[in-house]
């Protein structure tokens, strides 16, 4: 929430889920193209002095241990140094580690960040000319170069790199002259670079070679004078907007620019760009730019600026047209007004549409058509925008403003809270043990944390424990908060009610053993939250035994609020599928939800994108009628995005006491124990043992055993048991559990290198101080030593601390 120190802080590397760090480590431990391990290449891209050669050597030693990973050592050390995920992403981008970026960065379409330069596109015959284009995007974009409307053809030794970032003319010839652009494309979308003109001459260019049109005038024709490559362009523009006149030239530096209007020098305008803002009637006139260097002076084409009093209406002439939701379902026809005989090049959001089109362009508007459209022609060596005429069928109502509506303004909230439950290991032998709810919860928590949510994550919860978690969630929710609840596990639907199945349910899923999703929603509504978002990632088929079907009159009485949205992984009567490839994968629904949840869109638009993606992912082996089809229901009355800003309380949200208490509760549930230096008889053999801790989920504690010992010690082995007052807790050796590695966290407070990783689960059942009893065995100078029951204690960790807090105040 807004007043916590963690709410607005950047997402840190140490916030990443444990399995994500493991996967990334495995990628960075592999040799890269330069012959060094990926983690060493990563370090080389960090600011100077981050790690010295001694530290790098220490990281290398990790590879000599069984299960050791130098990359994991680097990542966890970066985590303890407070490095952010954003910084990690920048380093991975610098070493072009696409596989690693998939783990820590949302996928996205290409965006051009480096356009071909006009200063590198001109040269004499037989010289080398290179055009360069660079785009971001994930997956990494593929490149393709175009000359005009046609793809550039690769000719070995002459034109190379037509499908690379750099297009190279090894020996440039005059027939290479023309307009070039680059397309960057991945599976999500594509983007086009700006156009650049390649000019090759067999002799130093003269003014006449520069541009034969009579509108270009030169005061001097000296060889070496500037060559104008971008001319200012004419426009008809409504008053009140902005317009940028641009002129660019190539030649011997330094080059100076001077703007003129109606033949008179504008003293204050001496640069490549001249911004008219805000446009007024007095800006109407003829503009040109004088470009000079020590060899001569060249004048640009004249640009005629015509200012009109108001925005152009439908059927009127305009330079571009924005298609938005108000035109959804209508037939929109756009026509270029130019008399130029060549085909039109159509652009959407400044990206050239891939197929050549006629001067008339018609759309039956769908959502994917939303954007700003314009039309351009190639005239000589220039790409010139042309005015548009627009017709709409059926036309808009007369009382509707012609100008497109303003961009959607999303809302604000007081805080964001999420409870995520993943039930995977069901106790009844007859119930299918699922594969991916734990991964789904971990992955979603990472995404939501980056969006500013305070997440509580539980795995394998019984009915009592689920209901206890709902009471905890209720304490976190106050007026003005966005509330999200996610459940992954077994489920079913009967009589219009959706039931969540706890891990202690018996075969047959009796209604009394299960939790009604509607009761969770009612609890959220009762807290007067601004948004209630439920995501039910489970089956919705009815049980085989329906002898105890609930009655409609027993349903919870829900409020008729305009703030609720429920997302289902499948429709009623259908099943939700898991991936069968690997245990570390996500379920089908979550796989595609993760691809879209980080986008700056309305929640409904995100869910529509997810539904479309899941429908398209149907394997050929599953009939259409049996494939899961996600759906959602919404009562939202205004645009809401998961990106909405968290703002400080302005007094309109109610009691500050409730808000402060909620902050306290969440903080208590996420306190990780401090490192412990273990003491015992083994210290006489110069052995040092320490424990460090990390959270895998809110109810799962990771215990890292770190050891330092002399070379005389060998065959060291460690075991741990945990117990409390009248209780024994579940502690497992992670290296012996499927789906995990034995790598551990070594922080600045840790001692030595981590050798063992243990997992303490079901912290929701801990009610007091936890005692760890360590067992050690090792060989020192040929003598076998064993120590058992070396005890050390910690306070209840993570969510157990919060439950103890509640118990103490009952």
Explain the layout of strands and helices.
Elements: H1 18-28, H2 38-44, H3 53-61, H4 70-80, H5 85-94, H6 98-104, E1 108-114, E2 122-124, E3 129-132, E4 134-138, E5 142-147, E6 150-151, E7 159-160, E8 166-169, E9 178-185, E10 190-192, E11 196-201, H7 207-210, E12 227-230, E13 235-238, E14 243-246, E15 248-250, E16 256-261, E17 264-265, E18 273-276, E19 285-293, E20 296-299, E21 303-308, E22 317-318, E23 321-323, E24 331-336, E25 345-348, E26 351-352, E27 360-364, E28 371-379, E29 382-386, E30 388-393, E31 412-413, E32 415-422, H8 437-450, E33 454-459, H9 463-476, E34 481-488, E35 491-494, E36 497-500, E37 515-516, H10 517-526, E38 531-537, E39 564-568, H11 588-596, H12 603-616, E40 631-634, E41 645-646, H13 656-668, E42 676-678, E43 688-697, E44 700-708, E45 713-724, E46 727-729, E47 731-733, E48 753-760, E49 770-780, E50 783-794, H14 799-808
Parallel strand pairs: 2-11, 13-21, 31-41, 32-33, 32-34, 34-38, 38-39
Antiparallel strand pairs: 1-4, 3-8, 5-6, 5-9, 7-8, 9-10, 9-11, 12-15, 14-18, 16-17, 16-19, 19-20, 19-21, 22-30, 23-28, 24-27, 24-30, 25-26, 25-28, 28-29, 35-36, 36-37, 39-40, 42-43, 43-44, 44-48, 45-46, 45-49, 47-48, 49-50
Helix pairs in contact: 1-4, 1-6, 5-6, 11-12
**Portion in helices:** 10-25%
Uncertain regions: pLDDT < 50 for 5+ in a row? 1-8, 203-223, 310-316, 395-408, 549-557, 736-754
Largest sheet: number of strands, sense, barrel closure: 6 strands, mixed
The average pLDDT is 77
Instruction: Please state the overall shape, judged from the principal axes of the Cα atoms.
Output: globular
């Amino acid at each position: 929430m807004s007043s916590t120190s963690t709410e607005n802080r950047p997402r840190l590397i140490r916030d990443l889920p444990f399995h994500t760090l493991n996967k990334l480590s495995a990628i960075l431990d592999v040799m890269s193209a330069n012959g060094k391990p990926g983690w060493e290449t990563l370090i080389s891209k960090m600011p100077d002095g981050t790690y010295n050669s001694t530290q790098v050597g220490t990281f290398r030693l990790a590879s000599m241990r069984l299960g050791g990973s130098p990359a994991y050592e680097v990542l966890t050390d970066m985590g303890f140094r407070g490095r952010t995920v954003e910084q990690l992403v920048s380093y991975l981008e610098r070493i072009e580690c696409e596989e690693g970026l998939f783990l820590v960065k949302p996928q996205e379409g290409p965006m051009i960040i480096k356009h071909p330069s006009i200063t590198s596109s001109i040269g004499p015959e037989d010289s080398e000319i290179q055009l360069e284009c660079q785009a971001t995007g994930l997956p990494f974009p593929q490149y393709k170069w175009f000359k005009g409307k046609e793809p550039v053809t690769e000719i070995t030794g002459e034109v190379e790199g037509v499908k690379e970032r750099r297009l190279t003319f090894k020996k440039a010839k005059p027939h290479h002259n023309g307009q070039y652009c680059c397309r960057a494309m991945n599976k999500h979308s594509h983007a086009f670079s700006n156009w650049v003109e390649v000019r090759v001459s067999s002799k130093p260019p003269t003014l006449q070679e520069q541009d034969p049109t009579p509108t270009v005038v030169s005061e001097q024709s000296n060889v070496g004078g500037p060559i104008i490559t971008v001319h200012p362009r004419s426009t008809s523009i409504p008053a009140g907007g902005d317009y940028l006149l641009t002129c660019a030239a190539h030649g011997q530096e330094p080059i100076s620019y001077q703007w003129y209007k109606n033949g008179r020098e504008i003293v204050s305008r001496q640069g490549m760009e001249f911004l008219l803002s805000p446009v007024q009637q007095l800006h109407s006139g003829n503009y040109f730019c004088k470009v000079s260097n020590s060899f001569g002076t060249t004048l640009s084409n004249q640009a005629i600026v015509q200012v009109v009093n108001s925005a152009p209406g439908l059927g009127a002439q305009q330079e571009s047209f924005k298609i938005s939701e108000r035109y959804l379902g209508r037939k929109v026809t756009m026509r270029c007004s130019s008399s130029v005989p060549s085909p039109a090049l159509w652009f959407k959001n400044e990206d050239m549409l891939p197929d050549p089109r006629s001067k008339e362009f018609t759309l039956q508007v769908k959502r994917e058509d939303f954007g700003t459209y314009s039309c351009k022609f190639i005239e000589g060596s220039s790409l010139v925008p042309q005015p548009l005429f627009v017709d709409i069928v059926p036309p808009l109502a007369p009382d509707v403003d012609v100008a497109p509506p303003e961009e959607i303004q999303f809302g604000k909230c007081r805080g964001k809270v999420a409870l995520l439950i993943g039930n995977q290991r069901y106790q009844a032998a007859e119930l299918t043990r699922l594969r991916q709810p734990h991964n789904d919860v971990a992955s979603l928590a990472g995404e939501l944390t980056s969006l500013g949510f305070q997440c509580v994550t539980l795995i394998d919860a019984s009915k009592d424990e689920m209901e206890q978690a709902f009471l905890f969630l209720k304490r976190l929710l106050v007026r003005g908060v966005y509330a999200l609840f996610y459940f992954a596990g077994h489920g079913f639907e009967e009589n219009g009610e959706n039931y969540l199945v706890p891990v202690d349910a018996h075969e047959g899923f009796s209604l009394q053993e299960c939790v009604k999703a509607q009761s969770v929603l009612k609890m959220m509504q009762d807290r007067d939250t601004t948004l209630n978002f439920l995501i039910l990632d489970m089956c919705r088929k009815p049980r085989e035994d329906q002898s105890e079907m609930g009655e409609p009159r027993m349903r919870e009485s829900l409020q008729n609020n305009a703030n609720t949205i429920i997302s289902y992984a499948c429709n009623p009567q259908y099943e939700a599928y898991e991936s069968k490839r690997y245990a570390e994968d996500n379920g089908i629904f979550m796989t595609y939800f993760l691809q879209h949840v980080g986008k700056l869109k309305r929640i409904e638009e995100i869910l529509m994108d997810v539904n479309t993606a899941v429908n398209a992912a149907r394997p050929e082996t599953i009939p259409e009628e049996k494939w899961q089809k996600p759906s959602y229901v919404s009562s939202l009355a205004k645009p809401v995005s998961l990106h909405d800003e968290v703002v400080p309380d302005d007094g309109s949200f109610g009691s500050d006491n409730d808000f402060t208490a909620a902050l306290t509760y969440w903080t208590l549930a996420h306190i990780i124990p401090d490192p412990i230096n273990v003491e015992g008889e083994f210290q006489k053999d110069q052995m040092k043992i320490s424990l460090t801790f990390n959270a895998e989920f809110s109810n799962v504690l990771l215990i890292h055993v770190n050891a330092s010992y002399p070379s005389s010690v060998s065959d060291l082995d460690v075991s741990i048991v945990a117990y409390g007052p009248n209780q024994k807790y579940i502690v497992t050796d992670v290296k012996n559990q499927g789906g995990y590695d034995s790598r551990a966290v070594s922080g600045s407070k840790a001692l030595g290198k981590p050798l063992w990783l243990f997992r303490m689960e079901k912290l929701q059942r801990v009610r007091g101080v936890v005692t760890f009893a360590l067992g050690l065995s090792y060989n020192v100078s040929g003598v076998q030593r064993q120590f058992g029951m070396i005890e050390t204690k910690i306070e209840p960790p993570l969510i157990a601390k919060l439950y103890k807090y509640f118990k103490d105040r009952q």
